[in-house]
Amino acid sequence: MTGANPPSPADIAGDRPNHAFADRTGLVAGSVAVSTIRASVRWIRADLKARRVQALLTVLAVAGIVTALITSATLLEDGTNPWRGLFAESRGAHVWIHTRDAPEVAALSRLPGVVQVAGPYRSAPVTLTLDGKKSPVALREMSATPPKVAVPLIREGRPLRPGDTDGVVVERSFARALDLRVGGPFPVTGLNGATHPLIVVGLADSTDQGFYPEWTPGLAWTLAPVLARVEPALGRSESVTGLRLADGEATLPAVHGAVTLLEGQIQRMSTWREVRASMELDNRLLGLLLALFGIAGLVAAALAIANAVGGRVLTQTRDIATLKSLGYTRGQVFGVLMAEHGALGLLGIVIGLLCGQVAASFVLDGTPILPLSSGPLLAIAGGTAAVVCVAVALPAWRGGRTPPIPAAPAAPLRGHLSHLARLALLLRLPPALVLGTRDAFTRRVPAFLSIFGVAIPMMMITIGLGCWATLDDFLRHPEQVGQAAALTVRPDKLPADEALRIARADPGVLAAYPGAEVLALEPEQTRSVLTRAAGTSAEPYPFSVVEGRMYAARGEAVAGQGLLDLLGVRIGDRVRLTVGGTPLIVHLVGRVVEPDQDGEVLSFGIDTLAAKDAVPPQFYSLVLRPGADPSEVRARLLTASGEALEVHRVVNPAERLAIIRVVIVALIGVLALLGLANLLTAAALGLRDHAFDLAVLKAMGLTPRQVAATLVTGTGLLIVLGVLAGTAAGASLVGGLIDLQGHSSGVGAGIGRTPSALTLAVAMLVAVGSALLVTLIPAGRAARAQVPVTAR
Amino acid sequence: MTSPVVDTVNLVKIYQDGEVPVPAVRGVDLRVEAGEFVAVMGPSGSGKSTLIHMIGGLEARTSGEIWLDGQRADMLKESAWALLRRRKIGFVFQFFNLVANMTVADNVELPALLAGVSAKEARRRREHLLGELGLTARADAAPAQLAGGEQQRVALARALANKPSLLLADEPTGNLDSRNTRDVLRLLGEVHREGQAIVLVTHDARVASLADRVVSLLDGQIVDDGGAGLARRRPRGGAGDVIELRG
Questions:
Q1: Listed residues A377, A407, A437: the one ending a domain
Q2: CA of B186 to nearest chain A CA: how many angstroms apart?
Q3: Which residues pair with A488 in a beta bridge?
């Protein structure tokens, strides 16, 4: 049929051939460039069409990694922390000082760096009672005309007006937590026991203090006459003054100045850093996790891309040679390969940039986000582009050096038996396995690249599983992260003894430890730290001590990593604090895992506190019997006390970190894509290298199934090695990495968990199994296919 | 008088494989005039493929000169050779070497586009060439869907897309059955009659018989030059005699 239609002897080549070499050898560079582009576009289009899946994988992998990096940078940059925006909008004060009496404004405004002074405002502690639930509130005075500094930003309702005899403006996070609405009741009880039915007129954002419930008490503003009515006694209220500084970074001189000026007067101080930290919502941890995954993922992606391009160049050697014989120069081949594979990477980056914005908002579930500033955005886009370019450039350069003789066979493969193959031979494994083992390492560099390409995603997956295991451990063994007690009981209306008796009577309660939390001024008196009395020296609360020992005598204390870092002290040091004016000197004897307050908590026996702070105990921490359901116990306790007790469930930090699980699953998906991309490359290369062998193997009498087994063994061995190496590396790194993170976040080292052996085994089996399944398809097809007889 | 399309002077190629130098072409002087059809014959390993690879710039010469259309080409760099190939030289290989991912039409249009022709003109040329070669119906097919003879005809169309002054064919029928061989040779003959200079490498005497002139290579040297009178180093009773008898 091929020769059935012979062409007419007409003019086949068109015009007469052109012999004018001499006058036209100097080709016009411009037209050549344009023409090359046209020809190259055809080639690229055809190539992409031929390997849609691989191209899609490259794009998805790069997009996933850029998404992870953008999200992490957004989280790390505090773009998600509303503090930045709110502080600027409200012209917030950098330092807030709580004093007994109103300080002298003129003297404060003369302090170094102070630009403006907010207040002093009178503030009274009151209790809000809604639906039987009591919440402490700081009711602060506010003028009807908005102040110049630290303006409450009215988001709903209206600001206070002169003549508002019962109106309050409530801080929004507090209102949200208590479900307060504009126009709703706000019944408060002063210290004298009188209840005042106030009305919520507005909800406002503020950076005067952090978000409720991380920061208590809740905040509400009202006009001075109303406050005077609620709390007539000046002695039972405090004075709150804000300092706005010229340079927010330089809080220390102003703070020291204020301490000197108001000596003895200061009850509490806070700076913008603490406010910001309380609004942070653990995004830093998430950000770090994402950054770690993103960067390692970038390395894995670079490997995957280099592998993919390198493999593609090898499989296309003949086509590239043909292009060169048609007149492509070395540089143009390089350019075409760079353009094709680089474009895929760039497309991935663009998609990743878009997804990054969406992902950040998804992770934060509606929290308003300031977009990432252009610096890190450009760095991520540029960095990823550079990595992609380098990853493409090396194999593309090799592609450009392909000799232009299409018929020339590829460099002969080194055919020596690897050690592994010899071992396989010695063990008298089936021939297919021996041959496959030999094939695995015929090309050393691609073989090792394939191993690394699988190992890095696997390592990251193992680390992800380790984070998962750590979270599980938090939930399953809260006592190991310093949360032995599942419930806290506040006596409220009942005497403390009665509360203790009711708690101990419950069958689900194993032990009840008396506790109190007081704020103490740290030695330099620049800020407050939380000190927590729990248990007694004789019967200490079961903290999870990871360094040193538990406190065992009066005056001994244990601390979280955050406190050690904050005060710059070590175990064995003595720390001097001031609690409500009384000095308190404790001997640090141990470090505990401390998930609260960034680890900036000092804990000791309640007998260490002065009696005025310790008797009666503010609350009892209840350790439940194994298997007891906290909510059932809580319900029983409430019933037993006739709703007189206040019973709270302790919030496990892992519950707040639940979003990390979503992130881990998503990242494992991206990493699996990367592994898959590497796998396809390795399989394609294996097929290409052994296309000739297949004929020989069949001639030798191997069945198609044995041939397929040979191919799968060749690729599978690399996968198994990669998976093993990656899992081992990940498992040995994960504990240390999480502890490092724990250390820097203040919780402290000692929380990191390696995934269980079973999890690791399952992960490895799934990885190897699915990889082998994926390789089986092309291998089976190749084994059944006609043996190629043409040169490659 | 116009200068010859190809003129090689004492062309030598020595492969340096490890310690031992392997001479493939040993001082070949070959002159091909415009419109001439030269067949280069010789047994396997006689250096005939190396010779036309050097003439097309696919391989660098070790020493000697290559003149194309009166211009010296052996000093050109790789990229300059590439530019030269785009417009002046068409290649046909034994294994067709069509770009597997591209359609027949794209394969044929590629060299024209590369030489700076507009997409429209490239399509016109492709339609014309495929029409002449009886392949219009297969324009959108992938090379793998074509029979060997068809693939070689597409390769021929691709080689002719830029109306090269020189067509180099390396065993173009080496992989074809006799019927397809006949068709491809007829096409080559027709192209030649239109004035196309062709250098064809083959070890098949029947194929060589189509040429104006048969040059016989043995161990990298010309042992017989059928069109150029007496060869300089022609030993009597060599392989060339057989070819001349058949031709």
A1: A407
A2: 8
A3: A621, A648
Are B60 and B120 within 8 A, CB to CB? no
Per CB-CB distance under 8 Å, the chain A contacts of B117 are 35
List pLDDT tens digits, range A150-203: 888 888 888 888 888 888 999 888 888 778 888 888 888 888 888 888 888 888
Q: What span, in angstroms and rounded, lies between the C-alpha atoms of A240 and A120?
A: 5
Residue A781 has φ and ψ, to the nearest 5°, of: -65, -40
Contact criterion met (CB < 8 Å) for B93 and A34: no
Residue B181 half-sphere exposure, CB side, CA atoms within 13 Å? 16
The answer to whether the CB atoms of B34 and A19 lie below 8 A apart is yes
Q: Cβ of B163 and A17 within 8 Å?
A: yes
Tokens representing A338? 């760079």
d(CA A69, CA A53): 24
> B179–A322: do the CB atoms touch at under 8 Å?
no
CB–CB of A37/B216 below 8 Å? no
Parallel/antiparallel/unpaired status of strands A487-490 and A114-130: unpaired
Three-class SS state of A777: helix
- Report the gap between the CA of A7 and the closest CA in chain B (Å): 5
A103 and A244 share one domain = yes
Give the start-to-end residue ranges of the domains of chain B.
6-246
Which residues are bridge partners to A167 per DSSP? Answer: A199
Q: How far is CA A69 from CA A62, A282, A288, A372, A463, in A?
A: 11, 17, 10, 11, 17
Q: Is residue A360 part of a domain?
A: yes
Chosen from A1, A21, A333 to mutate, greatest number of chain B CBs within 10 A: A21
In angstroms, the CA A355 to CA A352 distance is: 5
Structural domain including A399 reads 29-81+280-407
Q: What is the pLDDT of residues A312-353, one digit of tens each?
A: 888 888 888 888 888 888 888 999 999 998 999 999 999 988
pLDDT of res. A518 = 78
Last residue of a domain, one of A407, A433, A468: A407
Calpha distance A135→A557 (Å, rounded): 30
Residue B116: which of A19, A31, A321 has the nearest Cβ? A31
Q: Which of B74, B155, B149, B159 is nearest to B112 (CA)?
A: B159
Q: Is the pLDDT of residue B120 over 80?
A: yes
Instruction: Check whether residue A473 and residue A532 sit in a common domain.
Output: no
Query: Contact B97/A43, CB-based, under 8 Å?
Result: no
CB-based contact A710:A439 (threshold 8 Å): yes
DSSP per-residue letters across B179-196? HHHHHHHHHHHHHHHTT-
Contact at CB, B78 and A329, closer than 8 angstroms: yes
Q: Taking CA atoms, what residue in A is nearest to B182?
A: A3
Residue B149: what are its φ and ψ, rounded to 5°? Answer: -60, -40
CB atoms B165 and A49 under 8 Å: no
pTM, 2 dp: 0.64
- Could you report the predicted ipTM of this complex, rounded to two decimals? 0.82
**Claim to verify: residue A232 and residue A101 sit in the same structural domain:** yes
Beta bridge partners of B71: B68
Bond into A616 cis (ω within 30): yes
Which chain B residue lies closest to A43 (C-alpha atoms)?
A: B102
- Chain B residues in contact with A42 by the CB 8 A cut-off are 102, 106, 109-110, 113
Helix (H) or strand (E) segment spanning residue A171: strand A167-171
The CATH number of domain B6-246, selected from 3.10.50.40, 2.130.10.150, 3.40.50.300, 3.40.190.10: 3.40.50.300
Dist CA A151 CA A145 (whole Å) = 10
Q: How many CB pairs under 8 A join A and B?
A: 188
Q: Tell me how far apart the alpha carbons of residues B235 and B219 are, in angstroms, rounded to a whole number.
A: 13
Vertex B74: Cα angle to B70 and B75 (nearest 5) = 105
Residue A229: is it exposed, middle or buried by C-beta count within 10 angstroms (0-12/13-18/19+)?
middle
